[in-house]
Amino acid sequence: MLAQFEHASILVLGSGTSVGVPMVGCRCKVCTSNDPRDKRLRPSVLLRLGDQRILIDTSPDFRYQALRYSIERLDAILYTHSHADHILGLDDVRPFNFMQKSEIPIYASAETLRVIERTFQYVFDASPSESSRPRLRLHCFETEPICLAGLDFFPIKAFHGKGVVYGFRFGDCAYLTDHSDIPADSRERLAGLDVLFLDALRHNPHPTHSTLEASLKTVELLQPKRAFFTHISHDLLHAAIDARLPAHVHLAYDGLEIPIGRNAVEC
Ligand SMILES: [Zn+2]
Ligand SMILES: [Zn+2]
Ligand SMILES: [Zn+2]
Q1: Average pLDDT of the chain to the nearest whole number
Q2: Across the strands, what pairs with 46?
Q3: Which among 16, 33, 70, 94 is placed 20 to 30 Å from 63, CA to CA?
Q4: What is the CA radius of gyration of the chain?
Q5: Which ligand places an atom closest to the C-alpha of 86?
Q6: pLDDT digits (tens, 9 = 90+) for 189-228
Q7: From ligand 3's centre to the CA of 5, what distance in Å?
């Protein structure tokens, strides 16, 4: 357990790549698999920290994910980067504004905030509107820790092709999606982990994503106690791949909930 929480876990809301799995129109063996672990919504996780709920990214599937996993409150949203599969569900936070009668704080890099403000221009339009719009409080981060639910969240910078992505470390857990390279100083900040989430798109190299093989190397290097791979494409059949991974490494799947704890850094 994280020190001050009765219950702390990471819930996988979506383990799929940007088009989701099944991919529209595809009849491959993964897209037609009956294994529910091969049905992957767009990438996102929810942190359940006591009664606090911290969301990482608002995928285009966020509304369905919130219904499916009975998300009843939202205390903050952290953004990894500005790609469509990570931000497009933002409009669907409105019910949380209604229920909580408050703004939702969102945390992102300056670059990601710029894209969010451009993409969701109507949200930031100061003129009166007859329609409801998400009510947000924007926070920009660089490298300093973000204090949420009484815990420090450390942004961990990585490269996503030519772009930048942020992972987050909280206590001895870290979530790092969409990356092709982790610079040395960030690797140092990922030492001594219990749980590590990494992007593992497929087998074949991709200019902006880690592969299954590259993420296995990262796990070897960083030595987390447990590793979970996410942002998975339709190239990886869950049962076949998961069976071949080392015992402490798994493919994530939608609905997987990982209890976490120990060594939380309180802020
Ligand atoms: Zn992505
Ligand atoms: Zn397919
Ligand atoms: Zn991306």
Answers
A1: 95
A2: 11, 55
A3: 33
A4: 18
A5: 1
A6: 999 999 999 999 999 999 999 999 999 999 999 999 999 9
A7: 32
Percent of the chain with pLDDT over 90: 94
SS3 category, 12: strand
Cα of 129 vs centre of ligand 3, distance in Å, is 32
Does the pTM surpass 0.90? The reply is: yes
Provide the Cα torsion 25, 29, 33, 36; round to 10°. -90
Q: How far is the CA of 57 from the centre of ligand 1 (A)?
A: 10
Structure tokens at 31: 């897209």
What is the strand order of the sheet 136-140 is part of? Answer: 136-140, 104-108, 76-78, 52-56, 44-49, 8-14, 257-259
* Cα 60 to ligand 3 centroid, rounded to whole Å: 13
Measure CA of the first residue to CA of the last residue in the chain; give whole Å: 16
Give CA separation, 260 vs 8, 131, 206, in Å: 6, 40, 31
Report the C-alpha dihedral over residues 208, 210, 211, 216, rounded to 10 degrees. Answer: 170
pLDDT tens digit string along 56-81? 999 999 999 999 999 999 999 999 99
Tokens of 140: 């920009």
